[in-house]
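Morning!

This is the sequence you dropped in the shared folder:
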Amino acid sequence: MHYIMTIVWAVFISLASSFVLTSMAGEPFVLFEALILAAILSVAAFIIGDVILKVEKE
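The structure's back. Tokens below.
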């Protein structure tokens, strides 16, 4: 469940930030690019949560 919620939040945050930034730049919103950003954010969250933070607790 932890991984599913991380992916869901990464998708929501990346879609919102991509929409806002492309609107401010006057560029068209591309869903595929926002989903690529979501994948990158998910992987980064998994690495930070499972690797880096667990090492500091030990």
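Headline: The first helix runs from residue 2 to 25.

More detail when I'm at my desk.
O.
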